[in-house]
Amino acid sequence: MKISVKNLGALEEAEFELGDMTIICGKNNTGKTYATYALFGFLSFWREMFSIRIPDQTLTQLFNEGAIRIDIKAYQEQAARILEEGCRAYVQQLAKVFASSPDRFKQSGFWVNVASSEFSSYAGSFERKMSTKNGDIFSITKEASAMELVVTFLIEKEKVKIPKDSLTRLIGDALKEIIFGHLFPNPFIASAERTGAAIFRRELNFTKNRMLEEVTQKDKNLNPLELLFKVFTDYALPVKTNVEFTRQLESISKKKSFIAENHPEILTNFFDIIGGDYTVTRNDELFFVPQGKRVKLTMDESSSAVRSLLDVGFYLRHVAQPGDLLMVDEPELNLHPENQRRVARLFAHLLRAGLKVFITTHSDYIIKELNTLIMLNQPGADREAVRKRYGYEKEEPLAPERIRVYIAEQKNICKAGHTRKSPCQTLTPADIDPVLGIEARSFDETIDEMNQIQEALLFAGENGQ
């Protein structure tokens, strides 16, 4: 799956492909966060807001007969058109995603490019039901390997009181999941602003609850949820998502992710990185418990590293599901170089477990550690000896074909509709060599310059300068 963007923040024209692990690096203000937020916004929009349209005659038949059979193949053949329609609708939402003026996105473009061969429908079975306290109302089912979606009223059709818009949405969403579900992962994002959300969690809860209480007392006709959503309009969608996730930790902590059930060693590695564990009390109080100590620390009392990885920790332990896309904006935030290396190795374990990972980074330590994992993936007794000597686990080496790396930079390219190259802020694919690893020029050039300066200073006296 390839994503193309145009006139999106600093990015004039760019394209990037999602791998099992996707990395965007580069200097400040070069478009890394714009690409990340735009992708997260699209995946969220596609799952939560966009729905495949169902013809009115289909619903009429359902209400007349009480059951219908929908040809999945007919919609599968229109998949490219449906996806294009979704991208156009999403562009209209960019101002909300970035909490900015619509004028900034008048010339913006966002496209998802999928090969026609990838539009194969889900071969397994599918079932959805709508129920009330009195029982099931209707069902949407698909048998394994079948190409028909069956929608059936489970009560007398005359008693069905479901609005047609809601029914259309449910059927459209079922078709969307069957045809596109394997292409677009469920995203979770940890934005660069996540540390602040952890600190002010209690204040956010207090302010929100007090506002709702006052509103419900003063005006019974005002929907408090509408006012609540307006409070967050000044924040980009990923930041808003982080705030909401942090606010709900008490209820989130009652769930159990597939990693907690099937890969507890990954959580052990994660808690070794932060040096302890998180805990939420029944009173919704959040604490950090350092390893080997009985003390409980509030987020204010905890290190910035503990706060910066809070969302990731709760996601991995309580929310993550196979096939999800974990997006982390600058995972190196507040981490010592040793822990930056360990985070890179943690990502390798997550890939092995079945998650996809997308990061932006300024960390040469993360890139170099990923290089090591790529180099360790090559066969040979010497490499195996190095792996054992330095304590790398068998699951950590990475196949280079699973990784995509892009550098946000200005480069001479042929823009769409032009025949000559011109300077353009874009995303350039980085070379990934199975033996040498990732060529990250933005880091290497800076390190080379620093080395040259230090060498010049070291030998300055010898040259009589």
List keywords for this structure.
465 residues, alpha/beta, six-stranded mixed beta sheet, four-stranded antiparallel beta sheet, 17 strands, 43% helix
Characterization of this structure:
With 465 residues, this protein is of the alpha/beta class. It folds into three domains: 213 residues; 84 residues, no CATH class; 126 residues, no CATH class. Helices cover 43% and strands 22% of the residues. Strand 7 and strand 8 form a beta hairpin. The longest helix is centred in the middle third of the chain and has 18 residues. The protein starts with a strand and ends in a 7-residue tail after the last helix.
Per-chain topology:
Blueprint (H helix, E strand, L loop, with lengths): L1 E7 L2 E7 L3 E6 L5 H17 L7 H10 L1 E5 H5 L2 H13 L2 H5 L10 E5 L12 E7 L2 E8 L5 E6 L10 H17 L6 E4 L3 H6 L1 H18 L5 H8 L5 H11 L1 H4 L5 H5 L1 H11 L1 E5 L5 E5 L13 H5 L1 H10 L5 E5 L7 H17 L2 E6 L2 H13 L4 H9 L13 E12 L6 E9 L2 E2 L3 E2 L2 H18 L7
Parallel strand pairs: 3-13, 3-14, 9-12, 12-13
Antiparallel strand pairs: 1-2, 1-5, 4-8, 6-7, 7-8, 10-11, 14-15, 16-17
